[in-house]
Amino acid sequence: MIYSLARPLLFCADPETAHHLAFTALDAQAKFGLARAWAGVVPKKPVTVMGIEFPNPIGLAAGLDKNAEHMDGLAQLGFGFIEVGTLTPKPQPGNPQPRMFRLVEHEALINRLGFNNKGVDDALPRLRARKIKIPVGVNIGKNAATPIENATDDYLKALAAVFDVADYVTVNISSPNTKNLRDLQAISAVSKLVENVVFERDRLISLGIKKHCPIAVKIAPDIADDDIADTVKAICERGADAIIASNTTLSRVGVEAHEHAQQAGGLSGRPLTARADRVLERVVRAAKKTPVIGVGGVMSVADAQRKLDIGAALVQIYTGMLYRGPAFVGELVRGVKLAAR
After folding, report:
1. Among 18, 84, 282, 289, which has the highest number of CB atoms less than 10 A from its own CB?
2. Torsion angle of the four alpha carbons 186, 115, 71, 100, in this order, in degrees rounded to the nearest 10
3. Separation between Cα atoms, residue 134 and residue 129, nearest integer Å
4. Could you list the active site residues?
């Protein structure tokens, strides 16, 4: 009710300004524990995935808390886990503004942020000092200025930097907003990348830094249907612990007539729901025993439940919370039912 009153005011501002205003309010509430009021009663629905126990299966997708600056407030909303980032080895401003566009009547968002972040070193002190009890994943990517042929170097640098502070690490090769990044989803490229990342993870474990750090790989919903199985097989065979399916889409099906439809960037929200679910089905089938985290177009309890029913081990949200508000998290946790596994 409160958010329904505040949303028109937030939506009068451009999306990035609204984002900062909302987080300023959330952080202020979190200092006094008041952000918990948004969540309501959040039942425990524990699930164990990648060897990690999550208090419930609803998580925050990467992209909302890029610099790990708002973890306390987000945790109070009832999430079972949070994924921060995308973090790159070096700071970068991302693409020029404006770079986010609302398609309100479609409950959608187009963004071309371009991995804007303060760099991995800036986030480390906050990640290291966090007091929240829920798992925190760190999503890593390559810098825009790094040639695609040297992308592995960036992923290895970022992995080494966050290794001791991340409960799991996500290798993001699916953003449409960094030039050539999705080329890394080609079978030969993704095989080599995942193999190198897993090798580096195992090397760091051998040094005694920590005993466990799962690697997830985030793929796009725009992979050709006939290529999904081979891509997933390559990722699993090279030792990834989970696959996240999927990211934003370049498709504009369903929003073609909107004034922002021709804006470059990835589309998220309601128009992505059906495509994301179709991709999820194929990924789950191909991944076999490797767990899959479902994300894309979760705008209701029914959407989250469908992903779990398809076979997702966990579900992440982003755009749905922007449209539904901070109480959406608790609503999802209360509403979903976990199948016996």
Report:
1. 84
2. -110
3. 14
4. 175
DSSP of 247-300, one letter per residue? Answer: --BS--TT-TTSTTTTSSSEEEEGGGHHHHHHHHHHHHHHHTTS-EEEES---S
- Alpha-carbon distance of 118 to 43, in angstroms, equals 35
Type of residue at 296: G
Give the pLDDT of residue 3. Answer: 77
Full-model pTM: 0.96
List, for residues 115-173, the tens digit of each pLDDT value: 999 999 999 999 999 999 999 999 999 999 999 999 999 999 999 999 999 999 999 99
Contact 68, 84 (CB under 8 A): yes
Query: What's the rounded Cα separation, in Å, for the pair 21 and 281?
Result: 37
**Residue with tokens 């191909």, as numbered in its chain:** 286
pLDDT digits (tens, 9 = 90+) for 9-44: 888 889 999 999 999 999 999 999 999 999 999 999
Pairwise CA distance, residues 181 & 141, whole Å? 9
- Among 130, 122, 24, 141, smallest CA distance to 81 is for 130
Q: Over the stretch 217-243, which tens digit does the pLDDT of each residue have? A: 999 999 999 999 999 999 999 999 999
DSSP single-letter state for residue 157: H
Write the DSSP symbol of residue 132.
-
- Domains, the chain, in order of start with CATH, read 2-335 (3.20.20.70)
